[in-house]
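Extended Data, panel c. Modelled sequence:
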Amino acid sequence: MFYEIGKVLNDVIYTIGGFYNESKAFRNVILWFLSILTIHSTAYTIIGFFFTRKFKPAKHNHKYAILIAARNEEPVIGNLLKSISRQDYPKELITTFVVADNCTDNTAKVAREKGAIVYERFNDRDRTKGFALQFLFDKIEEDYGIESFEGYFIFDADNLLNKDYITRMNEAFDEGEKIITSYRNSKNFDENWVASTYALHWLRSIRKRHRARSVLRLATNIQGTGFLFANELVKDGWKYTSLTEDRAFTADAVAHGYGITYCDAAMFYDEQPTSLRVALRQRIRWSKGHLLAFVESGWPLFKNIFVGNCFRDKSEKRKLTKENIIEGIRHRWASFDTFAQLMPAVIPKVILWLVVGFFIYGCYSYRYGFYDQNVFKGGGWLTDGLNNLFGIKVSVGPGVMAMVYSMLLSTLWHFFGKLVYHVENMLTAVYIFIIERKRIKKISLPKKILYCITWPTFDIIYRYSMYAALFMKVTWKPIPHTSGVTIEDIEEVG
């Protein structure tokens, strides 16, 4: 019986190995498609190095509502509301709303004492921030009417605003922009290496995403907090209640034809997690939300690339004018661009490597063996250097040992490729520390070196949290905020 099982297994492996060249060709086609999605990233980085969109002083001051979803944020919400009260924008045009969401502390009391209009929500079943915002918009519609405010700001309770924040955002809104995000700085950048990875990530987004897309009048992405949008986007209420409401909002808005711009002059500060355990929990939630947003909005975005705005009323007659042609091109490219950002590329890449580069290649080696294979391979300059130093090669004839060795080597080559990518990624942190030196707090050189070395962990965690999110049931949990830093503290240091 064992002989028969072995013979069948041998035949199966032998047959699978015979399809290696075809499977490799298929893998290359998929990788080619994924590479197309990032073909413009270098150009965006270059544009973002030199340019960002600037806005003229506003002709009109618009009326805004500020919305804050807070769960047990008593230690920080007072500081945010104080920074709002210090704005140089007309006070009568700003109304601040807080939803105290399932709070067991004095968040609601502190917010009321600081002048906010507070609604308390008690619903522990629908737990996400998106549900809290949905509740708050429903209350605003009921008591004021959505159209009572021309635009809506979204902030987290741990944020702090520069004194001219709303004035600067109003300049962009006054030029007709419907969705605007802003400069996200960090109030605890140098608290530890975990916080620094988040702080560097937000600044990388500014340089490599927001600035170029604002210049080109395209659509950048909303990142959780510090953004403004016109009331027309919520005329039917807030419907983004998933684990990552920001991704869902971004994808849906772009799919419907909206641009999303960036205002570099409007700066706010955010508190970053300092606990690795909390960071891992948050990143898995982000990854799950990323996957859900791709499932929900990926197809409309992809379809828009080829057919234009698929949500537009097809009975509406559009004149073939220069403006409409330009807008059509803009929207198609913005849809492609947003689809590319939404695509969870790490998932198909790891599947392709496991199936083709690891398993089928192992079967191929079982059938044919492998000869003169470099042990050091797949890592560019690193493995080239190691080969020059050691030049170790392996040859194994057909059979089980060839299969085992090929799988081990494939894993090693994969590791070298990722290692080089992450080592090179440290240069991104160096670039950010240099280019943003005037806008971030002063940090000692030893800490900067440490943060450059630890910075790649942000992308490493992203990769593995995405893998975990595929299989895990993820629920929303609040991120604790305890920083006592005030906007006055930041101004004194600056």
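The longest helix spans residues 400-435. This feature is highlighted in the accompanying rendering.
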